[in-house]
Amino acid sequence: MRQPPITTASGIPVADNQNSASAGPRGPLLLQDFHLIEKLQHFNRERIPERVVHAKGSGAYGSFTVTHDISRYTKAKLFNGVGKSTVTFARFSTVGGERGSADTERDPRGFALRFYTEEGNWDLVGNNTPMFFIKDPIKFPDFVHTQKRCPQSNLKSPTMMFDFWSKAPESLHQVTMLFSDRGTPDGYRHMDGFGSHTYSLVNEAGERVYVKWHFKTQQGIKNLSAAEASRLAGADPDHAQRDLFEAIERGDFPRWDVKLQVATEAELAAWEARTGWNPFDLTKVWPHKDFPLQPVGVFELNRNPDNYHAEVEQAAFSPANVVPGMGYSPDKMLQGRLFAYHDAQLYRVGTNHQHLPVNAPRCPFHNQQRDGAMAIANGGIAQNYATVEAAGSRPSGLGHGEPGLALHGAAGRYDGRGGEDDYTQAGNLFRLMTAAERQNLFDNLAGPLSQVGAEIVQRQLGHFDQADPAYGAGVRAALQARAR
């Protein structure tokens, strides 16, 4: 295929793209060679800041198709009618590593989905785990720093990681998942996804239910052993990217069954009274026996992006993006993310990142936001302000229209740590594992723990013991085996 003639970014034809303009054959270069200057200037600015977390990722386009009617729960139009299809975009990622890190590192995997609906973009920004390490966003920067590099050595530090985890029993549930076989999934096609947080749905009658979103892989769960993950980190550090891209290119489109757990506020209150677990605590899950999975639809990926930077690196998700018929919950971690994600993209990509094609809604939009860097869609001649409605606001019936959420208690800072059960669910997860899976868990934990000081090790072992005595005993045996 013949390439079109080279031009500057302003469309001016370039006479010579091989030689810089100079004063004589060997003389110094001329500042008037604008093509050279523009080329170097843009090259110097090709990299936008990488994501602080989820920096290494892969993406693709696809579709969501409704298979079951959930209109009794939500008025969101993307669910209107069995068979209805919505264009989607997905980005999968590791969490702690830099853009050049290996796809096979032991790490949670980001599972971020965008649905381009007729009512705006819905972003469901989750992970391949249904729980998380912490329950309050004020600790998120501290936690992430422990997963990054030591400020002195610039090396990853097991001591930093386990110093944090051993002082935060709430993390044990996710730590158990992370160091299990599911901590190193075999690519992105062979893992489940979760919205993780508790969200809400609102129907036409204004009735609210709380929900958790699940994406169950139709390809089957496949994980890498620790040894194979380490081998691939050297032999093919882009293993997950390559696997996803090549599968879609050959027409082997990956698919996930989309399912929901649903509960009313009264049902959650009764469950909390019985179990003692806060249903909005991100370190906990809703057991399926208490809240069964209900089918909703099928999510498929079937088209690779044409340009990685434009469509994957610049993709900017935010869990604040929910469409009418959807809402949030009192989950403290979700509340923090509603601010943090959009703010991160304002810094990383730019003030008008929502104008970029991968981020722009596929439906008409109108607001009074104007100007700033890269104002691709700047409102034309439309007025840039809305007047005050002197008689008071009159809801249009459009938009979210959520019912009011009752609030309880005085404004303040509340610390429930120490009085909450952070061990039972972690123990339940451990007891679900086969003998072989448990041994892998013990060995995977013994590796980094063997590099950590005795005080931290003993503190962490105490948490394993409280989850299940066999859990602590197994890690102790694995540590002793490594010391021989």
TrEMBL record:
<keyword id="KW-0349">Heme</keyword>
<feature type="binding site" description="axial binding residue">
    <location>
        <position position="341"/>
    </location>
    <ligand>
        <name>heme</name>
    </ligand>
</feature>
<dbReference type="GO" id="GO:0004096">
    <property type="term" value="F:catalase activity"/>
</dbReference>
<dbReference type="Pfam" id="PF06628">
    <property type="entry name" value="Catalase-rel"/>
</dbReference>
<dbReference type="InterPro" id="IPR020835">
    <property type="entry name" value="Catalase_sf"/>
</dbReference>
<comment type="function">
    <text>Decomposes hydrogen peroxide into water and oxygen; serves to protect cells from the toxic effects of hydrogen peroxide.</text>
</comment>
<feature type="active site">
    <location>
        <position position="54"/>
    </location>
</feature>
<feature type="region of interest" description="Disordered">
    <location>
        <begin position="1"/>
        <end position="25"/>
    </location>
</feature>
<dbReference type="Pfam" id="PF00199">
    <property type="entry name" value="Catalase"/>
</dbReference>
<feature type="compositionally biased region" description="Polar residues">
    <location>
        <begin position="1"/>
        <end position="22"/>
    </location>
</feature>
<keyword id="KW-0376">Hydrogen peroxide</keyword>
<dbReference type="GO" id="GO:0042542">
    <property type="term" value="P:response to hydrogen peroxide"/>
</dbReference>
<dbReference type="InterPro" id="IPR040333">
    <property type="entry name" value="Catalase_3"/>
</dbReference>
<protein>
    <recommendedName>
        <fullName>Catalase</fullName>
        <ecNumber>1.11.1.6</ecNumber>
    </recommendedName>
</protein>
<keyword id="KW-0560">Oxidoreductase</keyword>
<dbReference type="InterPro" id="IPR018028">
    <property type="entry name" value="Catalase"/>
</dbReference>
<keyword id="KW-0479">Metal-binding</keyword>
<dbReference type="InterPro" id="IPR010582">
    <property type="entry name" value="Catalase_immune_responsive"/>
</dbReference>
<dbReference type="GO" id="GO:0042744">
    <property type="term" value="P:hydrogen peroxide catabolic process"/>
</dbReference>
<feature type="domain" description="Catalase core">
    <location>
        <begin position="7"/>
        <end position="394"/>
    </location>
</feature>
<dbReference type="InterPro" id="IPR024708">
    <property type="entry name" value="Catalase_AS"/>
</dbReference>
<keyword id="KW-0575">Peroxidase</keyword>
<dbReference type="InterPro" id="IPR002226">
    <property type="entry name" value="Catalase_haem_BS"/>
</dbReference>
<comment type="similarity">
    <text>Belongs to the catalase family.</text>
</comment>
<dbReference type="GO" id="GO:0020037">
    <property type="term" value="F:heme binding"/>
</dbReference>
<feature type="active site">
    <location>
        <position position="127"/>
    </location>
</feature>
<dbReference type="InterPro" id="IPR011614">
    <property type="entry name" value="Catalase_core"/>
</dbReference>
<comment type="subunit">
    <text>Homodimer.</text>
</comment>
<dbReference type="InterPro" id="IPR024711">
    <property type="entry name" value="Catalase_clade1/3"/>
</dbReference>
<dbReference type="GO" id="GO:0005737">
    <property type="term" value="C:cytoplasm"/>
</dbReference>
<dbReference type="GO" id="GO:0046872">
    <property type="term" value="F:metal ion binding"/>
</dbReference>
<keyword id="KW-0408">Iron</keyword>
